[in-house]
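lol so apparently i was supposed to do this last week
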Amino acid sequence: MCGIVAYLGDKHAYPILVEGLHRLEYRGYDSAGIVLLDDEIHLVKKKGKVRDLEDAAGGTPKRSTIGIGHTRWATHGEPNDVNAHPHLSGNGRLALVHNGIIENYAILKKALERLGHTFVSETDTEVFVHLIEEYQTRDGISIEEAVLQALNRVIGAYAIVVVDKEDPDKLVAARKQSPLVVGVGDDEFLVASDASPIVKYTNKVVYLNDHELAIITRDGNLNIRDIANNHVEPRVEEIDLKIEELEKEGYDFFMHKEIHQQPQTIMDCMRGRLNVQEGWIKLGGLEEYKKQILQANRMIIAGCGTSWHAGLIAEYLFEDLARLPVEVEYASELRYRNPVIREGDVVLAISQSGETADTLAALKHVKEKGATIYGIVNVVGSSIARITHAGSYIHAGPEIGVASTKAFTGQVTLLSLMALMIGYERGTIPLTRYEELISELGQIPEKVREVLAYEEQVKYIASEIKDTANALYLGRGYNFPVALEGALKLKEISYIHAEGYPAAEMKHGPIALIDENMPVIVIATNQSAYDKILSNVQEVKARKAKVIAITTKGDEQLKKYADYIVEIPETMEPFTPLLSVIPLQLLSYYIAVMRGCNVDQPRNLAKSVTVE
Ligand code: G6P
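anyway here it is w/ 6-O-phosphono-alpha-D-glucopyranose bound
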């Protein structure tokens, strides 16, 4: 949802900014731009990808050691050259990049127009930079003082970086509800939406908090103030992110690499937390608030997209293993409702990025109502990780493909550990079953590896159905959320209309759509409702659909009805989603590749949705 990068130091800023924009491109990719500063502002911006920006900048961009860059996911105004960032002030003195939405921009724009400002773009961001200009010229104040005044006028969400050509050794950055990290190197600073453009240069970072302003100067000063102009002591943290984790490492697409990383990432999620031999599960991040979880009367889970699907699986896990009532909510709905929060309720947010605006807002909303809030997050140091009372990281490493894969299995692994830990401590799982379950969970990475070995078969099925206009995904029980996730993956990256449905619900509507042109992907592993789903498959087959079944190894019955089969190894029912989702990820991946889609950067989507 827009990526920001800025540099101030002794190196040539242009290549650093461009490389940083490539790393941030997953956040938005409809246009990009940079400003390099010396005595003048040198602006290049272009509709399209960062590659298009590089073409527009030509081979010999201006030498400069300070600059700002932006890759955009449009909110106000269509993606074009003019609406691309950076935006300049009317007097051409200031340049600004922005991630977020200024909600009162229309009122501010009118007020500024009355004062003689004219605007060239349709963006809220241009209003922001004109507002700063207005304060700066009206009051004859420094750039940071003018930014501070403007921040007190704007309503909405922002991460910004501003430069001033009259003060060319300074970056001014600020955040509210959109992430911003300052990298502190030797004689240089970087500012970015996440740490990925920074790690090549330094592992020391300062995460800005909401309502904070950073003033960074060439003499090595990082001065942080809050919106009331009080000094804030910068807290420098060390991050552990390796540059290889941000590369494709031989794969054509990040999504493909991330699908294949899953045996490892699931293991990383369990490392130090699950000890099968000694029979314990420890989630260090929850320790301090463990009592509240163990005594909880109800758990509310909030998330968006794929993370919401992981939440649906958690509903099955917590009810089944821990006998804990669960409600799963779309964060975007929860944030505007008036939910009843009682003593003993806990709220769990699930988010890969830890920055999704709706999830963050829902958490703040229920926190104000007195709930204890937990986070299951991938990105270390992200906003959700910082506002929750307690939580656990899934340790999946950077997920760059827009369609979530390894984060989903990481979330489900973590939720499985949590459900088992609560169930064990609440005494809702008999000891022998608990032991069997944790031993089986320990086997999951190896079983995921076995599923990945069926890749060629899935690729073949993809080639058979790639031209379809629609697809239906059916599952029951633990596999119902997997059906939703499979359908979402296909929609996201191949632009095929797909629906996930609880298999038995199919006869209340979707069955009307079934004919010989409809591929139906049925997740039919040999568990509780197996006979029922077998009947659903027969119903589908009777209407001549092409049936693709995900079954348990050795299942002979389904072979009679399905046109294509992908087998997964036998496992215990609560862990089935960790295996059954893998062929669905591969299926959508190959269909998208065969249709010539840009798998990692599907149209209109962004990895991290930091606006409403
Ligand atoms: C976007 C992404 C999805 C993701 C969702 C929630 O829509 O494209 O892949 O599932 O946001 O993101 P989060 O970071 O909160 O898990």
